[in-house]
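Retro notes
What went well: the complex prediction finally ran end to end.
Inputs used:
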Amino acid sequence: SAVISQKPSRDICQRGTSLTIQCQVDSQVTMMFWYRQQPGQSLTLIATANQGSEATYESGFVIDKFPISRPNLTFSTLTVSNMSPEDSSIYLCSVGGWDYGYTFGSGTRLTVV
Amino acid sequence: DQQVKQNSPSLSVQEGRISILNCDYTNSMFDYFLWYKKYPAEGPTFLISISSIKDKNEDGRFTVFLNKSAKHLSLHIVPSQPGDSAVYFCAASAGGATNKLIFGTGTLLAVQP
């Protein structure tokens, strides 16, 4: 299975600022997924990122707030823009599919103050 | 609309006994199911999966059972060990073009020595 390097592992940010989270995969993958886990909650899919096309966002998530880049088949970034304390969560990237399994990055724990 | 539900937020089991974690889903298009284990400050770790063509899959101490007619799956851990203490998430995928995972709400398992 793929190995994902995600960074930063944690950050404390001021409200109104933006944070970009990076995920590097050790193999080429078609789809990358970005999830959010709010405190005490489940993992919620933010968007699916395909290389060469715009990301597909789930209901409740918009590109202006969570812009995603996918410049190649091994790398993606998620930006959390104009942050507020409600954005304090763990953000995770993932790759995979039903036919070859899903792997997750170690997560980015974001605290907005 | 929570398509994947884990109705027990927590479960406590004695070491050596069986742990049974349950999961229900509503979307009949789901055809691939997975269980993940998650420690705080880490990404989810894949445990075991099952496709809809099977009703049971076993891997060491972990067995997953799928009842399609009831839209229910369960994870059995035998024997339970203190190191199994974590949050367990079930997840489902409808495969196809999106391949995205929908996660359940999680069950915190505590295995008492």
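What we learned: The longest strand of chain B covers residues 86-93.
What to try next: split runs per interface for comparison.
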